[in-house]
UniProtKB/TrEMBL annotation:
NCBIfam families, per database record: PPR
Spans of repeat PPR: 69-99, 175-209
GO biological process, one term: system development
PROSITE patterns (UniProt xref): PPR
Gene Ontology MF terms: RNA binding
Organism whose genome encodes this protein: Selaginella moellendorffii
TM helices/strands, residue ranges: none
Pfam families: PPR, PPR_2
Coiled coil: none
Annotated keywords: Repeat
Lineage, broadest ranks: Eukaryota, Viridiplantae, Streptophyta, Embryophyta, Tracheophyta
Matching PANTHER family: DYW DOMAIN-CONTAINING PROTEIN, PENTATRICOPEPTIDE REPEAT-CONTAINING PROTEIN
Protein name: Pentacotripeptide-repeat region of PRORP domain-containing protein
Length: 323
């Protein structure tokens, strides 16, 4: 006699799903057997739909779940954040917050997701509320929670608060993720001098910079238009810190060359780097060709690129010929 699958079976199978079609077929079976409104099975459905980017489907299941617990709410919150539905994510957080008094205990994972949504929407006031809620909920400010808080203040334009939080937390625990988050906040805010000085401060503290640290510094040098300082840090990575440059580092340097009109050096670097240049690196160079009126280089670049992508470059370089 065939044995019907139960809740545990569906949760395990959903966790191993590798395609949308498979997930939807399982969903049909779950509905047929009356398990969709069960919080454990329903949460597994919300999670798998979120994984595949089917946010509406995840939301529909979420709404039908009878008694939602923290894991269920967090799955829906994460789906919103992961796929750019930041306003809905913050609305969901507020609903969770309203239920905190009736037994829904918010944890660090919830706050990390909410802070990430806040960072993307640049809502400083909501970010401050989240910070206060974290303190009230006695969330330990360490690891991802600490870095997300610093990142939120940085993305929302409050570098002073980002630094204040960083200074307070770094005394408790030396954490490279926290250092990099603060450095990137400076770099992405266009504060080149502060980013470069912060790298030096990091080394004095005894925290060894890594690939991400140098991505931040090179980004700052690139957008600050300081070639020699950028070159010095690019060379220091390997010479002083034994860090082999990765694609992003080469991309920052090529962009720096291009922004300063050194188109030949930018092209040479992209062609000689030990990685396949990303699409955005070539488009940045083509944009610089337009800015500096080098239509000949733009057309030559388009012609020399691989057949499967050259049509995109021809369209871009076509604008250069009108310069």
């Amino acid at each position: 006699m065939d044995v019907e699958p139960d809740e545990v079976t569906f949760v395990n199978v959903l966790g191993a799903c590798w395609s949308v079609d498979q997930a939807k077929k399982l969903h049909e079976k779950i509905v047929l057997l009356g398990f969709e409104t069960d919080v454990v099975v329903g949460t597994a459905l919300v999670t798998i739909y979120g994984k595949f980017g089917l946010v509406q489907e995840a939301e529909d299941v979420f709404e039908r779940i009878r008694e939602k617990n923290l894991i269920c709410w967090t799955a829906m919150l994460s789906a919103y954040v992961d796929h750019g539905f930041h306003s809905k994510a913050l609305e969901t957080y507020q609903k969770m917050r309203a239920r905190a008094g009736s037994g829904l205990k918010l944890d660090a994972i919830v706050f990390v997701s909410a802070l990430n949504a806040c960072s993307s929407s640049n809502d400083l006031e909501v970010g401050k509320q989240l910070h206060a809620d974290m303190i009230a909920s006695k969330i330990k400010l360490e690891g991802d929670a600490a870095a997300s808080l610093v990142n939120m203040y940085g993305k929302c334009g409050s570098l002073a608060m980002a630094r204040e939080v960083f200074d307070r937390l770094v005394k408790l625990r030396r954490d490279i993720v926290l250092w990099n988050t603060m450095l990137l906040s400076y770099a992405q805010s266009g504060l080149r001098s502060e980013a470069v000085e912060f790298l030096w401060e990091m080394t004095l503290d005894g925290t060894q910079p890594n690939e991400i640290s140098f991505t931040g510094v090179l980004y700052a040098c690139c957008h600050g238009g300081v070639l020699e300082q950028g070159r010095e840090h690019f060379q220091a990575m390997l010479r002083e810190y034994e860090i082999s440059p990765v694609s992003q580092h080469f991309g920052c340097m090529a962009d720096l060359f291009a922004r300063l009109g050194k188109l030949g050096e930018a092209e040479e670097l992209l062609r000689s780097m030990p990685y396949e240049p990303e699409f955005v690196m070539w488009t940045a160079l083509l944009g610089a060709c337009r800015n500096y009126g080098d239509s000949e280089r733009a057309a030559r670049l388009a012609e020399s690129l691989s057949p499967e992508t050259s049509s995109s470059y021809v369209l871009l370089s076509g604008t250069m010929t009108n310069v």
